[in-house]
Amino acid sequence: MRRASRVDGTHRELFDAARKLGFVVVETFQVGGGCPDGFVFLPAWQLWLAVEVKTDKGKLTPAQEKLHAQASITIWRNYDDVLSSLALKGASTHGRANSR
């Protein structure tokens, strides 16, 4: 019997941020076996990004380490990681400065 998948504390916040930025998010954290927590669709590039969410001190499990060695998987620990991986960091910072 497989144990229930654990969700890191920032999981909901970071995937919700990607959705608010207009990206499609498919969560797969319940799959287990090292599978990424989700996939984010980047329409500008017609590309899916595999995403693993971790807290600042969170570590990969052995199964995740094995998969990460074979595939390109992005780790999100905070909102800046979301913006950087979605190529929006400069635009978002600029937008925030103008909206004040």
Number of helices: 4
User: What's the helical proportion of residues?
Assistant: 25-40%
Radius of gyration using CA atoms only:
14 Å
Tally of strands? 4
Architecture overview:
There is one protein chain. The protein has a four-stranded mixed sheet with strand order 1-2-3-4, with helices on one face. 17% of the residues are buried. It has helices at residues 11-20, 62-70, 79-85, 89-98; strands at residues 24-27, 38-42, 47-53, 74-76. It is an alpha+beta fold. The termini are far apart. It is built from four helices and four strands, in the order αβββαβαα. The radius of gyration is 14 Å and the shape is globular. It has a single domain, classed as Trna Endonuclease, Chain: A, domain 1 (3-Layer(aba) Sandwich), CATH 3.40.1350.10.
Task: Map the helices and strands.
Blueprint: H1 11-20, E1 24-27, E2 38-42, E3 47-53, H2 62-70, E4 74-76, H3 79-85, H4 89-98
Parallel strand pairs: 3-4
Antiparallel strand pairs: 1-2, 2-3
What is the compact description of this entry?
It contains 4 helices and 4 strands, in the order αβββαβαα. The chain is of the alpha+beta class. The chain has one domain: 3-Layer(aba) Sandwich (Trna Endonuclease, Chain: A, domain 1).
